[in-house]
């Protein structure tokens, strides 16, 4: 084995499936089949397709799309969360330096016998992480550690931008999955990684471009908001700005698919998204949500899948559907 293949040979890495390297609330792993069915009907026939995710999050859809659709020749991801973007860049560019750092912090956590000792280590790591301005390897190592040991893998910061999620109750969570990290690193070498506001991504769109938006969800209640993963809140004004950005995407000849919470599932009179996106196609799917501290309040919940095109892989549009859409649009406009 050559020096460059000291850990695993290329054929071994090729057989490992790339997948999200972090836990992420609202991750799309469970909805992949439904998302695939809502892609443009002719997507696989697009030559040299460009795929853009302006809110990459955990990246489940990214890793799926790049492995399932070889016609994607250019991929761009973006997020406003600078620490998350540092993770993606570190996994892509310095995975062999990251792995031993993760192994060391994992071994240290495993060596602690009591949950109280583990909690003390968690708090010490969280405090160091919140000092900011760490080098990319240390910052990413601590991001991974906190992600794997905090409550439900939640990422939340306060108004000062400090991570404030409490410790979970995990004795031996996997913090370093080196096979997945190496597979992800290889795949991410095909990806341009941006940091900043979602609107900058339009500059990277080309002729055949599909945008997939998975923004911070609109909360269904005052106590269900878990979208503060940056110190800048993503409120209703932000949701409206995102819709206006979707209009720009379509005006320039591109396509989009967007996920968000289904407000009507909680309150039949809440037509926020139905009115906002009434010019587009709105589908509802069922997803599991497991964030609530009260286990009895977890379970299936309706979510929205909104897209700019009529024909999807799972549904060919016809005149009957068109009449129904026009009727639904009229009803939706009545709420405006």
Explain the overall architecture.
The chain has helices spanning 10-14, 32-37, 60-68, 82-93, 95-111, 115-129, 136-149, 178-188, 236-251, 263-266, 272-276, 319-333; strands spanning 49-53, 72-79, 191-195, 209-213, 255-261, 281-289, 299-307. The protein has a domain at 32-82 and 200-333: Rossmann fold (3-Layer(aba) Sandwich). It has twelve helices and seven strands. The protein has a seven-stranded mixed beta sheet, sandwiched between helices. The chain is of the alpha/beta class and 336 residues long. Helix 4 (82-93) crosses helix 7 and helix 5 (95-111) crosses helix 7. The radius of gyration is 21 Å and the shape is globular. Helix 3 (60-68) links the parallel strand 1 (49-53) and strand 2.
Fold blueprint:
Blueprint: H1 10-14, H2 32-37, E1 49-53, H3 60-68, E2 72-79, H4 82-93, H5 95-111, H6 115-129, H7 136-149, H8 178-188, E3 191-195, E4 209-213, H9 236-251, E5 255-261, H10 263-266, H11 272-276, E6 281-289, E7 299-307, H12 319-333
Parallel strand pairs: 1-2, 1-4, 2-3, 4-5
Antiparallel strand pairs: 5-7, 6-7
Helix pairs in contact: 4-7, 4-8, 5-7, 6-7
């Amino acid at each position: 084995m050559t020096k460059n293949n000291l850990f695993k040979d290329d054929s071994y890495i090729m057989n490992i499936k790339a997948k999200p390297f972090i836990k992420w609330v609202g991750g799309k792993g469970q909805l992949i089949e439904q998302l695939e069915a809502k892609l443009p009907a002719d997507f696989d026939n697009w030559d040299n397709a460009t795929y853009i995710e302006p809110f990459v999050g955990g990246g489940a859809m990214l890793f799926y799309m790049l492995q399932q659709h070889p016609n994607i020749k250019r991929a761009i991801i973006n997020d406003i969360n600078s620490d998350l973007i540092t993770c993606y860049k570190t996994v892509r560019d310095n995975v062999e330096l990251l792995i031993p750092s993760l192994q060391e912090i994992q071994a240290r956590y495993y060596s602690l016998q009591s949950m109280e000792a583990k909690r003390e280590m968690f708090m010490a790591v969280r405090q160091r992480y919140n000092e900011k301005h760490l080098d990319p390897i240390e910052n990413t190592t601590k991001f991974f550690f906190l992600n794997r040991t905090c409550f439900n893998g939640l990422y939340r910061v306060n108004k000062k931008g400090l991570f404030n999620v409490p410790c979970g109750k995990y004795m031996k969570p996997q913090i370093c999955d080196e096979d997945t990290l190496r597979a992800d690193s290889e795949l991410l070498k095909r990806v341009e990684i941006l940091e900043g506001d979602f609107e900058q991504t339009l500059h990277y769109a080309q002729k055949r471009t599909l945008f997939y938006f998975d923004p911070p969800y609109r909360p269904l209640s005052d106590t269900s908001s878990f979208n503060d993963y940056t110190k800048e809140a993503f409120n209703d004004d932000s949701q409206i700005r995102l819709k206006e950005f979707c209009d720009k995407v379509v005006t320039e000849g591109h396509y989009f698919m967007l996920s968000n919470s289904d407000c009507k599932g909680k309150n039949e009179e809440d037509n926020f998204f139905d009115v906002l996106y009434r010019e587009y196609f709105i589908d509802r799917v069922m997803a599991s949500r497991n964030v609530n501290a009260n286990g009895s309040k977890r379970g299936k919940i309706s979510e929205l899948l909104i897209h700019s095109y009529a024909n999807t892989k799972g549904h060919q549009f016809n005149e009957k559907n068109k009449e129904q859409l026009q009727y639904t649009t009229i009803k939706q406009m009545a709420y405006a």
